[in-house]
């Protein structure tokens, strides 16, 4: 029985009827499709490796403590594994529309917070898996690690027979409340009794000074962002329905653009996304010469020895995408300057300590604060863009090779569009999730991202290598 971290509890509390906060993906495989029973048996054999998938969230009475993960005594895998099909031969559009409807639906918050859908009927004798996992359960990087549980590196891999499982007894409300009160007292005491010695105190003081200086140095940038003209048409109320689009790119093309034009592959990707938003706003007649689209870019602070841990270890930076700039090279330079500055700041500031500070927030205030911020709307940024590195080797499910996977990132709090980016083998895929009513032109954004990549690749062929710049 584990307690949700402050970050995970924040994602749980932020869930609303119009803002389901699960992450997901749509993965396409070479056929033939496995039977529904074979998929269920595979997942049952893997569940002992991910016990969270048999647990549900239980809130503490009166919010005296953060919610707990407890075993679901009525767990039934047939509820979580669904089976559907598209009319044969189902193309990309049919799969995309189906995935948009499935991913737009809320998970049942009273049950373990995940679903997997087996989709048959795709063209070229292919099939797909649509997966959904609530953000309070796992962040993007840990989610990629969890793929290793269900997916195999060997197409001939064998799997153990499903084992019996007995849930642990769910604690009573009184026991949960008493435990929360006791933890409120004992955790600060443990922190006090583990105070560091003089040398560590000195080191901590120097770290605090560095963090303070870095924060102070970032104030001018924050002031500039506060005065920057933003694309306000991208924010506003969110409805219950979603439009979902995707785009694809060759990783080699992105790497070639990075080598010739400088920066990182992530800088190149953000620049291509800038072109997509530029086309979108231009089509809406809302593009100004100084307009930017501010996107939140989540950053994992998970250490290497924490890979696979089932809790969120993320922070975020805010990048102004220069959509008003007509020159793609200048757009890349502007994005690169911001990302380089954030890297310097993140090195000076202990982001993990900032995240951990949430563990000392009163649970009732945490719940109220998160819910209030979601209801009030969020107008500091207009988009969410997250890049999750995937495996560069083939993955298999029941001997079938995965050929592609597109990510799904939730939207909430007035931010009406998100872009998930996933790399697998030699490709990088983009999954674009948008509010249905606010983005009837979501395809303009996805097509603009593709054009942004194409223009950078074309420019790269005419430029000397700039990897060292």
From TrEMBL:
<keyword id="KW-0443">Lipid metabolism</keyword>
<keyword id="KW-0808">Transferase</keyword>
<dbReference type="GO" id="GO:0001666">
    <property type="term" value="P:response to hypoxia"/>
</dbReference>
<protein>
    <recommendedName>
        <fullName>Diacylglycerol O-acyltransferase</fullName>
        <ecNumber>2.3.1.20</ecNumber>
    </recommendedName>
</protein>
<dbReference type="GO" id="GO:0071731">
    <property type="term" value="P:response to nitric oxide"/>
</dbReference>
<dbReference type="InterPro" id="IPR023213">
    <property type="entry name" value="CAT-like_dom_sf"/>
</dbReference>
<comment type="similarity">
    <text>Belongs to the long-chain O-acyltransferase family.</text>
</comment>
<comment type="pathway">
    <text>Lipid metabolism.</text>
</comment>
<keyword id="KW-0012">Acyltransferase</keyword>
<feature type="domain" description="O-acyltransferase WSD1 C-terminal">
    <location>
        <begin position="312"/>
        <end position="456"/>
    </location>
</feature>
<keyword id="KW-0444">Lipid biosynthesis</keyword>
<dbReference type="InterPro" id="IPR009721">
    <property type="entry name" value="O-acyltransferase_WSD1_C"/>
</dbReference>
<keyword id="KW-0319">Glycerol metabolism</keyword>
<dbReference type="InterPro" id="IPR045034">
    <property type="entry name" value="O-acyltransferase_WSD1-like"/>
</dbReference>
<comment type="pathway">
    <text>Glycerolipid metabolism; triacylglycerol biosynthesis.</text>
</comment>
<dbReference type="GO" id="GO:0004144">
    <property type="term" value="F:diacylglycerol O-acyltransferase activity"/>
</dbReference>
<feature type="domain" description="O-acyltransferase WSD1-like N-terminal">
    <location>
        <begin position="4"/>
        <end position="269"/>
    </location>
</feature>
<dbReference type="GO" id="GO:0051701">
    <property type="term" value="P:biological process involved in interaction with host"/>
</dbReference>
<dbReference type="GO" id="GO:0019432">
    <property type="term" value="P:triglyceride biosynthetic process"/>
</dbReference>
<dbReference type="InterPro" id="IPR014292">
    <property type="entry name" value="Acyl_transf_WS/DGAT"/>
</dbReference>
<dbReference type="Pfam" id="PF03007">
    <property type="entry name" value="WS_DGAT_cat"/>
</dbReference>
<dbReference type="GO" id="GO:0005886">
    <property type="term" value="C:plasma membrane"/>
</dbReference>
<dbReference type="GO" id="GO:0006071">
    <property type="term" value="P:glycerol metabolic process"/>
</dbReference>
<dbReference type="InterPro" id="IPR004255">
    <property type="entry name" value="O-acyltransferase_WSD1_N"/>
</dbReference>
<dbReference type="Pfam" id="PF06974">
    <property type="entry name" value="WS_DGAT_C"/>
</dbReference>
């Amino acid at each position: 029985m584990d307690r949700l971290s402050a970050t995970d509890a924040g994602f749980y509390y932020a869930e609303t009827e119009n803002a389901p906060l699960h992450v997901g993906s749509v993965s396409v495989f070479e056929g033939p499709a496995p039977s529904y029973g074979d998929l269920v048996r595979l997942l049952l054999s893997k569940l002992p490796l991910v016990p969270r998938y048999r647990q549900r969230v239980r809130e503490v009475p009166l919010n005296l403590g953060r919610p707990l993960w407890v075993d679901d005594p009525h767990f039934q895998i047939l509820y979580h594994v669904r089976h559907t099909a598209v009319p044969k031969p189902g193309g990309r559009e049919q799969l995309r529309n189906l995935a948009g409807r499935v991913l737009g639906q809320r998970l049942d918050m009273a049950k373990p917070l995940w679903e997997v859908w087996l989709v048959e009927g795709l063209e070229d004798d292919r099939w797909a898996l649509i997966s959904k996992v609530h953000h309070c359960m796992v962040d993007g990087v840990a989610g990629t690690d969890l793929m290793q549980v269900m997916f195999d590196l060997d197409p001939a891999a064998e799997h153990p027979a499903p084992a019996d499982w007995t849930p642990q007894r769910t604690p009573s409300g009184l026991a949960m409340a008493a435990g929360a009160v006791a933890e409120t007292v004992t955790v600060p005491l443990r922190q006090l009794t583990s105070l560091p010695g003089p040398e560590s105190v000195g080191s901590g003081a120097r770290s605090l000074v560095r963090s303070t200086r870095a924060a102070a140095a970032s104030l001018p940038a924050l002031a500039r962002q506060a005065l920057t003209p933003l694309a306000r048409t991208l924010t506003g109320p969110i409805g219950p329905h979603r439009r979902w689009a995707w785009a694809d790119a060759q990783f080699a093309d992105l790497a070639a653009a990075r080598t010739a034009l400088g920066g990182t592959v992530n800088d190149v990707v953000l620049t291509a996304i800038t072109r997509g938003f530029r086309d979108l706003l231009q089509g809406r007649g809302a593009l100004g010469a100084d307009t930017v689209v501010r996107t939140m870019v989540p950053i994992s602070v998970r250490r290497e020895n924490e890979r696979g841990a089932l809790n969120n270890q993320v922070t975020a930076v805010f990048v102004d995408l220069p959509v008003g700039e007509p020159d793609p090279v200048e757009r890349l330079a502007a994005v690169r300057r911001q990302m380089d500055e954030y890297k310097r700041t993140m090195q000076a500031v202990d982001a993990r300590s900032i995240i951990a500070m949430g563990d000392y927030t009163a649970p009732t205030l945490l719940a109220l604060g998160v819910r209030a911020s979601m209801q009030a709307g969020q107008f500091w940024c207009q988009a969410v863009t997250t890049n999750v590195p995937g495996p560069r080797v083939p993955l298999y499910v029941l001997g079938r090779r995965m050929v592609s996977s597109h990510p799904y990132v939730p939207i909430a709090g007035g931010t009406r569009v998100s872009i998930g980016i996933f790399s697998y083998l030699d490709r990088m895929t983009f999954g674009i999730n948008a509010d249905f009513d606010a983005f009837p032109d979501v395809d303009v954004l996805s097509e603009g991202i593709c054009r942004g990549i194409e223009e950078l690749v074309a420019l790269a062929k005419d430029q000397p290598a700039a990897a060292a710049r």
